[in-house]
Amino acid sequence: MTTSTLPIETANADFDEMNGFLGSLFHHPVDSEAQEAERPIFEPERALQIRDGSDLVATAIAFTRQLGVPGGDLAAAHVSMVGVAPTHRRRGLLTAMMHHQLRQIYDSRREPVAVLWASEGQIYPRFGYGLASQRFHVSGETAELRLPAPTPGEGRLRLDRPTDRQADLARVYEHVRADRPGWSVRDDRWWRYVLVDPQAHRGGATERRVVLHEGPDGVDGYGLFRTKAEWDDGGPNSLTTVDEVVASTPAGYLAMWRMLLSLDLTRRVAWMRAAVDEPLLRLLNEPRRLNCRLVDALWVRVVDVPAALAARRYATDVDVVIEVTDHLLPENTGRWRLRGGPAEATCTPAIGPADLACDVRCLGELYLGGVNPTALADAGRLRELCPGALTAAGPAFTWHRAPSAMEIF
């Protein structure tokens, strides 16, 4: 790989040009309806571009959003629209943009972490991003699946158009989001983006619908889904594709799934973003029929070590000195004393010897509480310098809910 000498442009970018460029790289046509929904969330002042003459050859952007982390919310740069033209691969353009972006985020002191979805898992670890959450990709048959029988007073289900119930969806989502690391805050712009449903993106399926669960106090759950009619020699074999299921009560969750798995003429279900601790897997009579496949979800880059470690909460009390290495942001390299627990945390420079040692990528993997520190130690990624430090401090980095991701940004 050569080192790029092409300059990075940070002036206001043109959305239509960037959107068309990314569409060509990810092999999908530009849809006007989707494009108009994406336009309001675009932040031209946070876009990076590289040109070769007049040709756009590389892009990246960060969205300004809050991310749910253990114990609260944190300003996090949501990195997206990253791509390099096939004519300019292996020239160092991606490396130059990622370095530039991280330095921008660090110098602004606005966002202690960055987060992204990776098109390929091998790309972003070299820039310090760690795999912080995983998801189950569900693709199974429903004919033999059974859920517990309904009980009196479970509530009522209703079907509607998602855009007509945005206020209800937002209220339920925000209530549940408060206890789930990895879910991003959605303002009105982001809700419109999430709910846009261009026909060109349906793949022959129906428009997206929402099932709402109404409990004693009103709507307390929703499920976004669509169906696709298919028939074979044995009869109906239609597919239900689930996008989101959000419920604040077990009764609402169970009632919605009972409907989603038993729609007339459907025999299969697909769900791409199931949490690894999804209750459905504990409710079904035969969860193996879902054919759950574990895949990556959110990748986290700790940009400002002391600010990030102090911003989240910890499952147990912890007092540990961590030696961190960061080749891209040397300000993070050093020994940091983390003291915290379920209520508060501080992280300050340490003078004494370190108890644990790792690189900044490892901190990203630990950050949302979804990775057991012992597993990272067994992989040689986290080193115990003081005997017993891992046993004492490790449980603090976990959380009572696994991190998950509700949307691809």
UniProtKB/TrEMBL annotation:
<comment type="subunit">
    <text>Homohexamer; trimer of dimers.</text>
</comment>
<protein>
    <submittedName>
        <fullName>GNAT family N-acetyltransferase</fullName>
    </submittedName>
</protein>
<keyword id="KW-0012">Acyltransferase</keyword>
<dbReference type="Pfam" id="PF13527">
    <property type="entry name" value="Acetyltransf_9"/>
</dbReference>
<feature type="binding site">
    <location>
        <begin position="82"/>
        <end position="84"/>
    </location>
    <ligand>
        <name>acetyl-CoA</name>
    </ligand>
</feature>
<dbReference type="Pfam" id="PF17668">
    <property type="entry name" value="Acetyltransf_17"/>
</dbReference>
<dbReference type="InterPro" id="IPR051554">
    <property type="entry name" value="Acetyltransferase_Eis"/>
</dbReference>
<dbReference type="GO" id="GO:0030649">
    <property type="term" value="P:aminoglycoside antibiotic catabolic process"/>
</dbReference>
<dbReference type="Pfam" id="PF13530">
    <property type="entry name" value="SCP2_2"/>
</dbReference>
<feature type="binding site">
    <location>
        <begin position="119"/>
        <end position="120"/>
    </location>
    <ligand>
        <name>acetyl-CoA</name>
    </ligand>
</feature>
<keyword id="KW-0808">Transferase</keyword>
<dbReference type="InterPro" id="IPR000182">
    <property type="entry name" value="GNAT_dom"/>
</dbReference>
<dbReference type="InterPro" id="IPR025559">
    <property type="entry name" value="Eis_dom"/>
</dbReference>
<dbReference type="InterPro" id="IPR022902">
    <property type="entry name" value="NAcTrfase_Eis"/>
</dbReference>
<feature type="binding site">
    <location>
        <begin position="90"/>
        <end position="95"/>
    </location>
    <ligand>
        <name>acetyl-CoA</name>
    </ligand>
</feature>
<dbReference type="GO" id="GO:0034069">
    <property type="term" value="F:aminoglycoside N-acetyltransferase activity"/>
</dbReference>
<comment type="similarity">
    <text>Belongs to the acetyltransferase Eis family.</text>
</comment>
<dbReference type="InterPro" id="IPR036527">
    <property type="entry name" value="SCP2_sterol-bd_dom_sf"/>
</dbReference>
<feature type="active site" description="Proton acceptor; via carboxylate">
    <location>
        <position position="409"/>
    </location>
</feature>
<dbReference type="InterPro" id="IPR016181">
    <property type="entry name" value="Acyl_CoA_acyltransferase"/>
</dbReference>
<dbReference type="InterPro" id="IPR041380">
    <property type="entry name" value="Acetyltransf_17"/>
</dbReference>
<feature type="domain" description="N-acetyltransferase">
    <location>
        <begin position="6"/>
        <end position="150"/>
    </location>
</feature>
<feature type="active site" description="Proton donor">
    <location>
        <position position="124"/>
    </location>
</feature>
